[in-house]
Amino acid sequence: MIGYGFMGAAHSVGWRQAPRMFDLPAGVEMAVVVGRNAEAVADAAARWGWQESATDWREVIARDDIDLVDIVTPGDSHAEIAIAALEAGKHVLCEKPLANTVEEAQAMADAAARAAERGIRSMVGFTYRRVPAVTFLRDLVAQGAVGRIAQVRAAYRQDWLVDPDMPLGWRLQKEHAGSGALGDIGAHIIDMTQFVTGLSVDAVSGVVDTIVKERPLQGSGTGLSGTVAEGYGEVTVDDLAIFTGRLSTGALASFEATRFATGRKNDLSIEVSGDKGALRFDLEDLNTLWFYDRTAPEATQGFTRILVTEAQHPYVSAWWPAGHTLGYEHGFSHQAVDLVTAIVEGTDPHPSFDEGLSVQRVLAAVEESSANDSAWVRVGAEVSSPTR
Amino acid sequence: MIGYGFMGAAHSVGWRQAPRMFDLPAGVEMAVVVGRNAEAVADAAARWGWQESATDWREVIARDDIDLVDIVTPGDSHAEIAIAALEAGKHVLCEKPLANTVEEAQAMADAAARAAERGIRSMVGFTYRRVPAVTFLRDLVAQGAVGRIAQVRAAYRQDWLVDPDMPLGWRLQKEHAGSGALGDIGAHIIDMTQFVTGLSVDAVSGVVDTIVKERPLQGSGTGLSGTVAEGYGEVTVDDLAIFTGRLSTGALASFEATRFATGRKNDLSIEVSGDKGALRFDLEDLNTLWFYDRTAPEATQGFTRILVTEAQHPYVSAWWPAGHTLGYEHGFSHQAVDLVTAIVEGTDPHPSFDEGLSVQRVLAAVEESSANDSAWVRVGAEVSSPTR
Amino acid sequence: MIGYGFMGAAHSVGWRQAPRMFDLPAGVEMAVVVGRNAEAVADAAARWGWQESATDWREVIARDDIDLVDIVTPGDSHAEIAIAALEAGKHVLCEKPLANTVEEAQAMADAAARAAERGIRSMVGFTYRRVPAVTFLRDLVAQGAVGRIAQVRAAYRQDWLVDPDMPLGWRLQKEHAGSGALGDIGAHIIDMTQFVTGLSVDAVSGVVDTIVKERPLQGSGTGLSGTVAEGYGEVTVDDLAIFTGRLSTGALASFEATRFATGRKNDLSIEVSGDKGALRFDLEDLNTLWFYDRTAPEATQGFTRILVTEAQHPYVSAWWPAGHTLGYEHGFSHQAVDLVTAIVEGTDPHPSFDEGLSVQRVLAAVEESSANDSAWVRVGAEVSSPTR
Amino acid sequence: MIGYGFMGAAHSVGWRQAPRMFDLPAGVEMAVVVGRNAEAVADAAARWGWQESATDWREVIARDDIDLVDIVTPGDSHAEIAIAALEAGKHVLCEKPLANTVEEAQAMADAAARAAERGIRSMVGFTYRRVPAVTFLRDLVAQGAVGRIAQVRAAYRQDWLVDPDMPLGWRLQKEHAGSGALGDIGAHIIDMTQFVTGLSVDAVSGVVDTIVKERPLQGSGTGLSGTVAEGYGEVTVDDLAIFTGRLSTGALASFEATRFATGRKNDLSIEVSGDKGALRFDLEDLNTLWFYDRTAPEATQGFTRILVTEAQHPYVSAWWPAGHTLGYEHGFSHQAVDLVTAIVEGTDPHPSFDEGLSVQRVLAAVEESSANDSAWVRVGAEVSSPTR
CB of C72 within 8 A of CB of C12? Predict the structure, then answer.
């Protein structure tokens, strides 16, 4: 595993739990975690149960005893590491977003295609696909439960930027983060929409905005002179994106990604409406799926609150009895299960790098639309911008 | 009262109940209801408790014993009737939308301004403002409960067009209805946004769409030859509108008006997010207001479900004890109370015709944006279209 | 109508609205309202739209032009008025609880039986039966939607006595009120249980309690000396009752009636569980019915939130389109509709005085059980107490 | 760890995750898991990551390298194992219920008291105390957030016995299980009530019942003759218990434990009402706590939905950012953390065996009350029954 931040902790839970709770077709050894700070990464390895730590990822991917590379670094390093790992013949799991630019994502997808010819597998970490309720939502759509899709309404709402005193961290600076709410959380609702509907977002119109434009500089002492940064600096990424997508069938989908939805902590919601029914999901209540069945008797139609904790629901039988809920982290175990299974069975896991690239293209198209008075932009036809 | 459809029933409840439940500063006599079909309008008068019925609205507004004209006809006749009534010195309550075009709405607002100089009052029937939870939401925003508004998320979702066999009624034909979901239900969320925030929607970008483009002609036998209409006809109004507004402070607001949200019956929802808190409301649960207070102690922050049935909540003390809920129709009583009070007290009631006109302008701007690749259109600067 | 308190207002809405919104088989004239205070009752008549007011109920029930007597006085006068009215050949609607004692209730049921032989109808006002969602719940149970009933869970929770400074009003004094939470709100959940299940509560075990035992005397000047009551007085009725009932099939039902459920304003809830499904209802959300269908496909089972506002739902077609909600007061209109219809059609309306008596017997049995260490008491076999 | 059923899996997650996510004051080695079937327990050890497996628990507790014994066997073996382990100087974690009878529980509590004098710690596994929302509920009560407690309403509702074809497993036979819904899930709501209120249940009145009295015998071929069990056998434990408790302050608490609440999967709910506020929790939505604050401004009072995922909430900072939810299993990690911490710090962990004993006494008192016409039974004064 390359990287050891918050995502490193979550991926570690996935690797630790999956072989203990599921019947995997192969064993999992948590071999080595890699980071630039030797002491910190050694601490992480000890805490999370990795056998070793290392500071040079190139050395690690060159090792014969490494089969799989899990990349959880910031987005700007994904392309270099993932391409190198694939070329070294390692299967790759890469945290989302696939990259910070379409060009990088394209290069990664190309590398993945070449590697696939040699039986090397790659996967991008849109873990929310593997929340059981989301997987089940997708299954129900695929089985025709909502019929022909008329519209989709998706939002990802957080509120951690509402506080104007929140300092200007690296996530708020374009040169480091590439994008703000759009790329970080907007990416999830684009992927989830494409995943659950089986349709692609083909064109977009939208606007990105920065609500609080200046924030306090982080006051850590810096530089040779020991001066402390003071005053305010400019926020150079979006903190709110509102956009509309045209799906491949012509249906419209509305999207909102925001960090200013006061009181909404991690509120990804999606609703798929069709001529036979509707399905909706909310990440803050992740064991629940709501299903409206228009084919039921009229007088008793309504949204049914399905507690997705039954043995017949996706992934659930490996865990606890009915009514015993799962949490955020379980998707990381499911991701590990599916990736290991695909590798052993010799199939290509999903979401593929191509799917990650398609999300990246939608993000770029949204930015281009926003820069062009919200004119509609065809996904894939966007003029790529320097940062995307 | 001119007109006697569904809105006539609702307005009649308002006029019937208001003087019985509230201390009005003047009495209310339900004098005469007007319609073109003498027999049908006589039936309506008898059923709803109007003293008389009539077929010629011009005669009625000329009567000395009529003080107030309540217009509940389709939108294309609003301007003619309202302007005539105002010029005849009658106070006017006009059902929303104010008119089918900006030009008509402008003429009505001009007539209202002239009438106001003579003490004649006019009001447009955006009744949802007077759901107690909505009025209270506005009051809380005005008191600073959410602080500076960062964003608004509003939607009005119904599903009565999901059925592809729903016939091509007049509401689905542009020449009669003027507009579809946008003008009928989109108007409500625009007005509510402006009402509760105290801000105006200054520019918009959006798209309107027609999901089911052909519908069965209504098969009622017609004409001397007794032929029955057969086959399919074109739906010429939108059934889905998604748009983004720029408020006068620069904050963004997202809007969705749809008749294809399967399972959503009459689901107007609004959420106002600010740096001190958030407020949200849902019309399908109309006695409830949700309030998030960022100034509360951190560990116990959350959305508070306020049951807006306490005596200190707007309008409630005239009705029932705490916990005894109100319904859809009560807003019509509150509208009657506020209008009668304003007339007696000599003040201008709200929403004024100017406020109705401002909604009309936003609607026209959305249509223009949609026709122009979703480019942003400044409200009031739109090139008016023939139907709006 | 005899009486003009809070219930008088609610019944007046019912009589006023029913003939305007429903097709009644006979007209309704709101003839005369009766109260002891001539001025106050005249005000009530004027406000609520009754043609006359009067102070002597005996005179009124003797009038030939009166067909129906609606009794909304406190419970201790129900028996005398109702029996006199029935004997005078008037149909009677009597507000719940039917009486303050089983003896009185029995005498009223006997009088109703005698009157029925002469075609005179009587009905007790358990209006919550006529909330559309409750009627529909009963219909679904009767159709077998829950199968064989395994258990019932019912509660009526309010919080208006939580405040220790709430003064010692007449409702808290046994000599005036007869009973506290048990008789006032416990009666509702007993009746609703019997109504929706079609089963009788045959035996009970339970406890009643008084949480705050002393309260401030109400400081109204009293007596010749003009002294103001000061200090504290004893609360002589229960404010909390918890009891278990054995239904006629042997199934158990749990009941709780309380005025100390902080934050619960008017929260009547009931859940009926059977081998084919379950149904639940909550009065604070009265347009909604939750239905769990065990015969549905396993993976999509869950509680379905039915918005009971469709035209095919009970009573709804007379009101508004789907999704337009009703409130507390609409049950009073439905009660008027059903009573007038029964009178004209010559059938006995429900709930009958016998049904009211059966509730009274359960209440008495609960009090007896509580007084006897919560021993089980067969309903109808209770040793009747002086106050019940 | 002695035992390796469903609870073995859950405890294993706790031991596996706790040292990886929390800063423990001592390391945790998952040494040996013990079961009677050598092959099966070896499989469990391999799967769950225990270093060894063994078949003789007496040998294991005699080992010098074992510090802590975790007992997850059925209740009838708890006393023997726990007492032996304590006498062997091992710290003990014993799954709930502490034992199948009061006598056994008493003996265990006595052994724990003796062991405590030697610094040996013991703890009973009421893990739901350590759901963050429950711990936080307790903290808020302790801080006075609800004021003086007026009443408690607790229920634990499941539905897995609704199906009449569910076979007669060991859990439905008194000789093996001791008790049914009462002892298994009723125990949880008794413990939780005592935990969150800080009060004891001092007396009870109640009824236990068996709704489906006969069930199909499990058809596994058995015995030398190879005969298959056929036909129906008697269910000898309760499947529904409804009881009322008198708390040490005199306040009443209502309890319901059932396996016939159709549609309720694992629905433990509790509501604590006091003169300053109320708190409620529902296990099917375990990241949420509802708080009603009567000291807030009246017009904005309501139940606040607190998402208990903030860093300042109990246990949460070790896991994920705000809004990222936890699940059922996390309580087992928290239990491990608190037990290890107590052992290292030399303090007695909670719930102690004395607390487990107190729950056992309440259970016995409920059974005695049920057998005595629901007469009130003082907890601790019950005549103990053979099976409890």
Answer: no
- The domain C6-128 is classified under which CATH number: 3.30.1360.20, 3.40.50.1970, 3.40.50.720, 3.50.50.60? 3.40.50.720
Structural class in CATH, domain D131-352+359-369: alpha beta
10 Å Cβ neighbour count for A163? Answer: 13
Among the listed residues D80, D74, D39, the one whose alpha carbon sits nearest the alpha carbon of residue D57: D80
DSSP assignment of C311-324 equals: TTSTTGGGS-STT-
Place of tokens 């003839």: C31
Model confidence at C228: pLDDT above 90: no
Selected for mutation to probe chain D from A6, A20, A267 (highest D CB count within 10 Å) is A20
User: For residue D383, what pLDDT is reported?
Assistant: 53
pLDDT of residue A169: 85
Answer for the pair B196, B270: CB distance below 8 angstroms, yes or no.
Answer: yes
End-to-end CA separation in angstroms for chain D: 25
pTM, two decimals, is: 0.95
Question: CA-CA distance, A339 to A331, in Å (whole number)?
Answer: 12
Identify the CATH assignment for A6-127 out of 3.40.50.720, 3.40.50.300, 3.90.550.10, 3.40.50.150: 3.40.50.720
Write the burial class of residue B89 (CB in 10 Å: 0-12 exposed, 13-18 middle, 19+ buried): middle
Q: Cα(A148)–Cα(A249) distance, rounded to whole angstroms?
A: 9
Give the integer Cα–Cα distance in Å for C382 and B153.
Answer: 59
Alpha-carbon Rg for chain B, nearest whole angstrom, is 21
Q: What count of other Cβ atoms lies within 10 Å of the Cβ of residue C38?
A: 11
C-chain CB neighbours of A306 within 8 Å are 299-302
Option in A155, A301, A374 nearest B374 (CB): A374
Return the closest-CA partner of residue D115 out of D84, D152, D70.
Answer: D84
Chain A residue with minimum CA distance to C140: A300
pLDDT digits (tens, 9 = 90+) for C332-386: 999 999 999 999 999 999 999 999 999 999 999 999 999 999 999 999 875 544 3
Mean pLDDT over each residue of chain A, to the nearest integer? 94
Cα four-point dihedral sign D305, D307, D313, D314? positive
Q: Where are the domain boundaries for CATH 3.40.50.720 in chain B?
A: 6-128
Strands D52-54 and A32-34: unpaired
Encode pLDDT of D242-283 as tens digits. 999 999 999 999 999 999 999 999 999 999 999 999 999 999
* CATH architecture of residue range(s) B129-327+336-352+359-369: 2-Layer Sandwich (3.30)
Q: What is the mean pLDDT of chain B?
A: 94
Q: What is the pLDDT of residues D37-83, one digit of tens each?
A: 999 999 999 999 999 999 999 999 999 999 999 999 988 899 999 99
Widest CA span in chain B = 75
CA-based nearest distance B268→chain C, Å? 10
Between the alpha carbon of residue D36 and those of residues B301, B368, C280, D89, the distances in Å are 50, 78, 46, 23
Touching subunits of B (3+ CB pairs, under 8 Å) are A, C, D
Is residue C174 pLDDT above 90, yes or no?
A: no
The per-residue pLDDT for range A199-235, each reduced to its tens digit, is 999 999 999 999 999 999 875 444 344 445 578 999 9
What would the CATH number be for the domain defined by A129-352+359-369? Answer: 3.30.360.10
Does domain C129-330+340-352+359-369 fall into CATH 3.40.50.2000?
no
Q: How far is D31 from chain A (nearest CA, A)?
A: 16
**Both structure tokens of D282:** 């529902």
